[in-house]
Design goal:
Largest sheet of chain A: 7 strands, mixed
Number of strands of chain A: 10
Shape of chain A: globular
Radius of gyration of chain A: 13 Å
Structural class of chain A: mainly beta
Order of helices and strands of chain B: EEEEEEEEEEEEE
Distance between the termini of chain B: 40 Å
Strand content of chain A: over 45%
Oligomer: heterodimer
Number of strands of chain B: 13
Distance between the termini of chain A: 36 Å
Helix content of chain A: under 10%
Number of helices of chain B: 0
Largest interface: A-B, 23 and 24 residues
Shape of chain B: globular
Strand content of chain B: over 45%
Number of helices of chain A: 0
Largest sheet of chain B: 7 strands, mixed
């Protein structure tokens, strides 16, 4: 079973700043089978990135994903007010798992 | 637009069963699978399992094997998730989500990424 660790647990930033979120896997994630989701309070998660670096339909280009193997990164180039939320990484395959999440809050 | 609409909130007693529905629209239902994910209050996301809307093949999370059953009704484009022998720690919001590239091969099934998600169904287990 692949265990995902996300860091930091909370990221306190101001609008306009760059956010860098990390997702580390306990073993290599095959074929970059990694996705990122955004969740706001009281809402369902929303897909941002799949295949480690492909943006989902309608996702602004300030969101980007990178990485391979065991280390993956979600970058938000310039935080907009609507970007303050919790972000989850997910590895997919025969037994999908999610990371514990990173909360991005307003400094 | 692609949309998944789930059934309403449920309150159940320990030991009971719950069945949550997820009605799809805006796409060909049998072209994709459906995954179910739950989220306990204040907690993270837990994948529960996947079903192919094409042929009904399933892949359940090991910890839920024997307690969960996922089915589909292609005539109404609706997926169902039934969880039995409910416990207090099953209290959660349950989400269905379209699974974009899930498939089965060689006797094993695989899930992919999820988009979109249903609005969620709160299931409360309490005596």
């Amino acid at each position: 079973e692949i265990v995902l660790t996300q860091s930091p647990g909370t990221l306190s930033l101001s609008p306009g700043e760059r956010a860098t979120l990390s997702c580390r896997a306990s073993q290599s994630v095959s074929s970059s089978y990694l996705a990122w989701y955004q969740q706001k309070p009281g809402q369902a998660p929303r897909l941002l990135i799949y295949g480690a670096s492909s943006r989902a339909t309608g996702i602004p280009d300030r969101f980007s994903g990178s990485g391979s193997g065991t280390d993956f990164t979600l970058t938000i180039s310039r935080l907009e007010p609507e970007d303050f939320a919790v972000y989850y990484c997910q590895q997919y395959g025969s037994s999908p798992h999610f990371g514990p999440g990173t909360k991005v809050d307003i400094k | 637009q692609v949309q998944l609409v789930q059934s309403g909130a449920e309150v159940k007693k320990p030991g009971a069963s719950v069945k949550v529905s997820c009605k799809a629209s805006g796409y060909t239902f049998t072209s994709y699978g459906i995954s179910w994910v739950r989220q306990a209050p204040g907690q993270g996301l837990e994948w529960m399992g996947w079903i192919s809307a094409y042929n009904g093949n399933t892949n359940y999370a090991q910890k839920l094997q024997g307690r969960v059953t996922m089915t589909t009704d292609t005539s109404t484009s609706t997926a169902y998730m039934e969880l039995r022998s409910l416990r207090s720690d099953d209290t959660a919001v349950y989400y269905c989500a379209r699974d974009l590239e899930g498939y089965c091969s060689g006797g094993s099934c695989y899930s992919s990424w999820f988009d979109p998600w249903g609005q969620g169904t709160l299931v409360t287990v309490s005596s």
